[in-house]
Specification:
The chain is α/β, with parallel strands linked by helices. It is 45% helix and 12% strand. The protein contains 9 helices and 6 strands. Belongs to the HAD-like hydrolase superfamily. CbbY/CbbZ/Gph/YieH family.
Length: 215
């Protein structure tokens, strides 16, 4: 039985994964660390501090705590600049009908995001009120692939993990869903998201019938 669908935000409901990439890329360029879109696949779903540390490690850089703080603030300021004009028009096609179909089934809708900016983005997209519970990076200690944020979302929804489906575009996110004991749905490349039970190229291609079939 399915009782809840728990969504990732960045790259699943809207194209913020691209803006995160642009902002990390600018920072890596400044640090003279080579950073490609392929590298970025490893960072999708990973929180701010661990992403910075991944880039620093790639460049053989050792950062002090103060430098980490400064660079994270710089990346976030750039990211906020990139997303400041976001509006409901930036919601991916297919999200609204999918949410309506989920509600019609009586299933709950949750969010499990690694971003500290999740509430701001939901607000900009005009979908904050659609969620029965929102879990984000402000409430958890352990970043995806740790299951903490998905488990928190399930607990907040009052649904046991076995009755939840998680929807993710990140390798780390699919791992987190599996570790949480939920059924994983991937958005993106099947080859990259091989652990997922079902992979669709974008959320518009995900139907309620496909979700129901995972029960
Ligand atoms: C994740 C994104 O959702 O949030 C990552 O996939 C991003 O790309 C991470 O780095 C942290 O986001 P923020 O907004 O807290 O810096
Ligand atoms: Mg994502």
């Amino acid at each position: 039985t399915i009782r809840a669908i728990i969504f990732d935000l960045d790259g699943v409901l809207t194209d913020t994964a691209w803006y995160h990439y642009r902002a990390w890329k600018a920072l890596a360029d400044e640090l003279a660390v080579p950073f490609t879109e392929q590298d970025n696949e490893q960072l999708k779903g990973v929180d701010r501090l661990n992403s910075l540390r991944w880039i620093a490690h790639k460049g053989g850089l050792v950062l002090s705590a103060a430098e980490e703080e400064r660079l994270m603030a710089q990346k976030n300021a750039h990211y906020l600049e990139l997303i400041q004009h976001m509006s409901p028009a930036d919601l991916y096609p297919g999200v609204q009908p999918l949410f309506a179909a989920i509600k019609a089934k009586g299933w709950k809708i949750g969010l499990a995001s690694a971003s500290k900016n999740a509430a701001f983005v939901l607000d900009r997209l005009g979908i904050a009120a659609d969620f029965d519970y929102v879990a984000d990076a402000n409430q958890v200690k352990n970043s995806k692939p740790d299951p903490e944020v998905f488990l928190l979302a399930a607990a907040g929804l009052g649904v046991v993990p076995a009755h939840c489906i998680g929807v993710e575009d990140a390798v780390a996110g699919i791992e987190a869903i599996c570790a949480a004991g939920m059924r994983p749905v991937g958005i993106g490349e099947p080859a990259l998201l091989a652990q997922a039970s079902l992979v669709v190229p974008q959320i518009a291609a995900l139907s309620i019938a496909q979700l129901q079939a995972l029960a």
